[in-house]
Amino acid sequence: MSTSTSIRINHDLYEQAKQDAMQEHCSIAGQIEFWARVGRATLDNPDLPVSFIAESLASLSEPSGQSTLFVPRSGCQ
Fold this sequence. Notes:
By secondary structure, this protein is mainly alpha-helical. It has a domain at 11-60. It is built from 3 helices and no strands. Helix 1 crosses helix 2. The protein starts with 10 loop residues before the first helix and ends in a 17-residue tail after the last helix.
């Protein structure tokens, strides 16, 4: 079960989150939470590109029913 807490954020940040949330089809809170996870993971892994971290976190949130089974290629063909 998830709980919520109210916080104050800059109006410009809220508006940017609102725009991005509409493009990503998620809530404003969900968009800000995603940004926070990306930021935390970026600080924890400074050697990884931010785009790699963001795409990895986004892929983890996709339903597993939409995933494609990984099939490794054989060494020689």
